[in-house]
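User: structure tokens for this one?
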Amino acid sequence: MGQVTELDQGEWRFVESGRLVPEAVVSAVGYTSHLRRPVLHRGLPSPALTLVLTFDEPVTSGFEPTGEDAGSSHLVLGGLHTRPAYIAQPRVQSGIQLAVRPLALRQLFGVAAGELRDQAVDARAVLGEGAEDLRQRLAELTTWPERFAALAAYLRAGADRVTAGPRPEVVEAWKWIAWHRGTGSMSALARHVHLGERQLTSIFKAELGVTPKAASRLMRFEHARQRIARTVREASSLDLAAVAHSCGYYDHSHLVREFQQYAGCSPTRWIGDELRNIQAGAGQPAQEFPV
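Assistant:
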């Protein structure tokens, strides 16, 4: 399963699991918090599905800051989305959050990520009847290594039951987009997988819920977010123009506009709002990129 790393930042405590089912999960983080007051957290779009299992109060989340569209559940699975999701965080909470590879959802549970497009659902509808038993068992275990091991066993059991995977052209297209960090052209991508652009768009969107172009934008944004978060954690000087250039944006203004769409605010506002979470290790990578 890999090494378990603990990070403590005052009100927040995060525990990372090194390699939890790496073919299906990009990152796994256990968390506990004792906040001075409830807060509203902004969840950014990313090229990963988000699975949350909470051990205390249910998660309340939605796509509007006011919470008018919010729903509550102890198990939440969010699909790929292109706007910020808002999560109401109570003062005391604990649980596990996973960044799940979109193409792995079908292999784990026989469901295409496209069925979750731009929405968060009660994960029991996808994970199966044993999901609630799993959540309660994880809450009763006393150490994070035990919890991660039990969760990994559950996910691997799901993978063993499902034999059908995504079309190989979609798998290869996703790898190509990640390799280029979202900066490759759609015509070059179509040629790479030996399909016409229209056909590729159709099968890609059916499987993942977004077009190849939208997935590329998510990849590029994720690359920029990771660079910004790493700079903040290292307490280094942040040069947004340099980040924009290195991540394939036309200029600094282009990066800011992308943040306005995906985060609902500027990069500097996002850093200010999420500073303690970023420093504490929240927002783990949702996609690995080649060096």
